[in-house]
# Entry
Amino acid sequence: MKEKLVLSVLVDNVSGVLQRVASLFSRRGYNISSLTVSETENPLFSRMTIELYTEPENFRQIKRQLIKLEIVKKVSQLNDDSAVSSELLLIKVQAKGVEKKNAILAFNVKYGARVLDVSLDTITLEFTGTSETIDEFVNYIENDFGIVELARTGITSLERGAGSFTDDVN
# Structure
């Protein structure tokens, strides 16, 4: 039975890192379901948050393979107890007419998405939350209103507590 694995990977902030890490996964037949990368508070490093589904017995092997890459400085497995996670969604919703727009805005009271744009036929919303909450939001919009277009960032996470992931890395 496959389970969700979320890794926080600290890497050198240099060109080619994304390709090297992604190719490690593809060579071993692992499909990355979500990948976000950005520079950390220390410009020497970037943080990759990688989500994939695999058998639990593969968790340790994946972490060992990553740490073998000289560009990888640190790997940490994240879960709901050890980390806070969020995802960003931009969604353009069919909203022709005042009645439809009001219905979307009334629905949105439950979720609190920000309205970014209103046109004659659409409303564009920005929503952040857990992957599960975003899935729920998207399903409701799709079934009750219709989606014109959407974009999701994928999961990004930080470990809980006072320290930084880069604290003990030179």
